[in-house]
Write a structure and sequence with these properties.
By secondary structure, the protein is mostly helical. It has one domain (about 15-100): 4'-phosphopantetheinyl transferase domain (Ribosomal Protein L22, Chain A, Alpha-Beta Complex). About 50% of the residues lie in helices and about 10% in strands. The protein contains 4 helices and 2 strands. A two-stranded antiparallel ribbon has the order 1-2. Strand 1 (about 75-80) and strand 2 form a beta hairpin. Helix 2 packs antiparallel against helix 3 (about 45-65). The two termini are about 20 Å apart.
Length: about 100
């Protein structure tokens, strides 16, 4: 039997804003790729853009069933926008090695 499910991941904007204020570049570089950071910086609601990407990364790992184990890094998942604005997921590193990422 195939199980089909869905969920929603929410991230509180002030939580991300506090992490950026408290840990500055160390937090940003650990969680977001350079392209994700540039995208957020180019928008007036940059914190919201970062929060959305954070939530997407959490959701992808839940979908994959891996969690934050082993050598998986936050930056192994990159959320970019296509030229027409749709979010796109780019997997690399340990996340890309997961059997479910090749499906």
């Amino acid at each position: 039997m195939e199980i089909v499910a869905h969920g929603i991941d929410l991230v509180d904007f002030p939580r991300i804003e506090e992490m950026v204020k408290r840990h500055d570049e160390r937090f940003l570089n650990k969680v977001f790729t350079a392209a994700e950071q540039s995208y957020a910086e180019a928008n007036k609601n940059g914190t919201e853009k970062l929060a959305g990407r954070f939530a997407a990364k959490e959701a992808i790992l839940k979908l994959m069933g891996t969690g934050w184990r082993g050598k998986i890094a936050w930056t192994d998942i990159e959320i970019l926008n296509s030229p027409t604005g749709q979010p796109e997921v780019v997997l690399c590193g340990e996340v890309k090695k997961s059997p479910i990422s090749s499906k």
